[in-house]
Amino acid sequence: MNKKVIRCENFEKVYFHESECVKLNQDDILLETVYSMISPGTELFCIDCAMKDGNFTEPGYIQIASDENGNTYFVFPSMSESSGAHCDRRFLSKNSILIKLDGNIKYEEAAFLRFINIGLHAFNRAGKSSGNICVFGLGPVGNIACQTAKILGYEVTGIDSCEKRLALAGKCGIAKAVKPDYLDKVTDEYDFVIDTVAADATLSKSLEILKPGGSCSVTGIVKPGQLKAADMMTKIWQKDLNFFSGWEMKSRFSDIEDNLYRAMNWIKAGYYNFAPLLTATLNADASEIRDAYKKLKENPSENISFLIKWK
Fold first, then answer.
1. Do 94 and 218 have their domain in common?
2. Do 130 and 199 have their domain in common?
3. In this structure, what DSSP letter does residue 119 have?
4. How many CA atoms lie within 13 A of 159 on its CB side?
């Protein structure tokens, strides 16, 4: 039995790589992919790294799949199995989390569970139950973090420089979605920041807008920049701030599983609006997938996320 998985060498060379579908451990579970989702941040980062290294990457970490008994799951792979979800089938070990889906949740909605978990990981670590929150970046992670913050009772400010992402935020029910200059004269106002951008400008601004004792989850992959460590640490020391990693894989898997079930219940209750965030649903065709990656890279204001339908 063979499997085929999307492999990327650059944004032009995107193709299916076929190989034998191998069962490595006796308890491994064979899964047939129903949907997978292209997530812009991490996957584009992986393709960029592959290009710099002259290598390839097999991206994809968001997957809806079914087993041999016809049960369908949202799949949260273990760290060692976290790539290569854009495939027709694969074996996964019991180290991965399988959240069984029922008829009360659409598969297209379940694909957004991973984004909810990223935000919930940040809220869990912050240890706050309410207050004022500022979210930098209104891509899928930031937008959904804003929606989650509303559910938890926060007063939410979403920040993005892109007019179209601000408009999308409004369609998703985020009432206060504004450009960065809104914060020009803001100091000591926010209890919590989620930074999905993680660049000099947003990290520096977080130092100013957080209240003494406030927290910042650095959820985005940190960009190279000129921010001086001494300046940042001095402000953290003066205001007793807490900056921590927003990387979801730092969480215990038992906490991730709790997050996913909690998020699934919120989806069923109708608390989220995902429709504006889904740019298009694609066929499992290498050329369509290649074009989607190019659109995400070249025109991120028009393209947020893509769902791939495998069967």
1. no
2. yes
3. H
4. 20
Please state the pTM of the whole predicted model.
0.94
What secondary structure letter does DSSP report for 276?
A: G
Contact yes or no for 8/39 (Cβ under 8 A):
no
pLDDT single digits (tens) 263-311: 999 999 999 999 999 999 999 999 999 999 999 999 998 899 999 999 8
Contact 134, 193 (CB under 8 A): yes
What domain range is 9 assigned to? 2-112+274-309
CATH of the domain at 51: 3.90.180.10
| Region at 150 (left for phi over 0; alpha for psi -120 to 50; beta for the rest) | alpha
C-alpha distance from residue 116 to each of 183, 213, 240, 299 (Å): 26, 25, 28, 24
Q: Could you tell me the CATH number of the domain that includes residue 219?
A: 3.40.50.720
CA atoms within 13 A on the CB side of 136: 29
Q: How many Cβ atoms from other residues are within 10 Å of residue 89's Cβ?
A: 17
Number of structural domains, the chain?
A: 2
pLDDT tens digits, 220-240: 989 999 999 999 999 999 999
Q: 190 with 132: CB under 8 angstroms?
A: yes
Phi-psi label, residue 294: left if phi above 0, alpha if psi -120 to 50, beta otherwise: alpha
Q: Tell me, yes or no, whether 157 and 59 share the same domain.
A: no
Torsion of Cα atoms, 181 then 169 then 307 then 305, to 10°: -10
- At residue 297, what is the residue type? K
